Amino acid sequence: MKRASRTGGRRPVASVYRGTPRNLAMLARLLREGDLVAVPTETVYGLAADALNARACRRIFEAKGRPAADPLIVHIQSIRELELVAEANPAARRLASAFWPGPLTLVLPKKPVIPDVVTAGRSSVAVRMPAHPLLRRLLKLAARPLAAPSANPFGYLSPTTAEHVRHGLGLKIRHILDGGPARIGIESTIVDLRNPEKPRLLRPGGISRASIARVLGRTVAVPTVRLRSVAHRGVGQLAPGQLARHYSPHTPIVLHRRLSLAAASKSPLDEAWLFIRKQLKYNRKNIFWLDRTGDSRGAARRLFSLLQRLDEGTWRVIHAELAPDGALAEAINDRLRRAASRD
Prior knowledge:
Blueprint: E1 15-17, H1 21-32, E2 37-39, E3 46-50, H2 54-64, E4 73-75, H3 82-85, H4 90-99, E5 104-109, E6 124-128, H5 133-142, E7 146-147, H6 162-169, E8 175-177, E9 189-192, E10 200-203, H7 209-216, E11 253-256, H8 261-265, E12 271-277, E13 287-291, H9 296-311, E14 317-321, H10 329-340
Parallel strand pairs: 1-8, 4-6, 5-9, 11-14, 12-13, 12-14
Antiparallel strand pairs: 2-3, 3-7, 4-7, 5-6, 9-10
Helix pairs in contact: 1-5
């Protein structure tokens, strides 16, 4: 039986805007006035508010059903603005120079101008400079940093198109800027640089850990503990994307180190099989692939989009293959493991 749509059959109220100069000027004005706008980034679509306006940022949590213990990422328009929102250090400046604008978020001590609601009450802030041209123009027009988590109901698959946002939050927000499909398709890499001598990877993403380590000239540690609750010990999270279960479709996911085409071809037709690379022979409607060649960047680009598509279907279960290698394999597998988790 096909599940009900996420809008419950009601018509979304959100309007979708093309990135014309007139629309961008209007959306920038709305952001300055404290409204919410769903925006495109090169990673996934975000739900933006004025990062200096605590009341506006609280509306993000309300719209998403997001716990207050889960902080937001602050988006800036230029490297110069980093010093306005955070206490930068030489390591942070090196990474910013190497990867900004781009899918890298840095966790640093925050400046007082950033409200506590943005940082879940912590003394640090997550900051990045996005690369999407429409968002960069909007940031410049708004003339202030924008706080923006993914534009989806909390815990669900991240949106990579304006239509995903409209289906997920169309009853909660009024404005969506359409910037086309996300180029990278998974969220930014998050690095904790509060202690530049001991950088930590908090979330793998669009830039590999190896690339970051090369720029810093030191190993980037990976914490092994996953939070099972956003209220973990009553302390706000250091950065988003830390929960054991996250980015999850409604349809259960079963992970496999490697999928077998033979097993998929004999499986019940209500089971979807998601291969990383295209197989030479397949002729069943329940077999899907993320990239024709097995390239991790192509697989990352299609991951959330294809999972959204499968979750709209009538599949009883999704069998998914972990990425064996590639620049973004760590990030892909992180998302798949969190999506499949039952914690």
